Amino acid sequence: MHHLNRKLNICIAGEGGQGAQSVAKIIVNAAYAQKVPVAYVPNYGVEQRGGVSIAFVRLSPEPISYPKFDKADIMVLLSDRSVDRVKQHIGPNTNVFYNKDFVDRKLPKKYIGYNFNKQAQEMGSTRLFNMIVLGLVVKTMDSIPLQTIINHAHKKFASKYTAKPEMKKLNEEAIKYGYNLV
Asked: For the chain, what is the domain count?
């Protein structure tokens, strides 16, 4: 059992299809496997497709009575219009990371931007984009072992590996790459 020493609120916001929910689910499953109390609230835009997709994940040292939170400890902004949807969850102590490839607006200097898409492409597939994000979030969380996260990512994508076995190695490399960004 892995013990958390504080509550951890994570918010990942992007366009539908960018993988915000996949990243969240891997973290949730890994936390659950480590017996860490965890709550997950997915939030989808009203549009049928092409809406904003937001994942709220809360980890805690003790059982969680309420899954929603006001301010995030870790905020990841994957697209430009997702910024407006979650800015009320950014507080003075929130670690904010954003996707330089999709967020065009000027953001406060203390927010940290990365070229997630460009990097994923260079690694061999734009689909690796959310695995880089996953690694970055795991490092910032500093509460679930990297290998546990990698194992749960492999579990989640096991059925996809049958058709594309090379994705297993690439996913692992992308997670480690994101982990070493911070």
From this structure: 1
Distance CA 171, CA 182 (A): 18
Distance CA 113, CA 83 (A): 13
3-state secondary structure of 111: coil
What's the domain range around 167? Answer: 8-179
Q: pLDDT at position 2, please?
A: 57
Could you tell me if residue 137 is inside a domain? yes
- Residue numbers of the chain with a pLDDT score lower than 50: 1
Enumerate residues 6+ apart whose C-beta is below 8 A from 181. Answer: 114, 132, 135, 136, 139
In a domain, 1, yes or no: no
> How, if at all, do strands 52-59 and 38-44 pair?
antiparallel
Q: How far is the C-alpha of 20 from the C-alpha of 78, rounded, in Å? A: 8
Per-residue pLDDT, 50: 72
CATH number of the domain that residue 171 is part of = 3.40.920.10
Q: Left (φ > 0), alpha (ψ -120 to 50) or beta: where does 4 sit?
A: beta
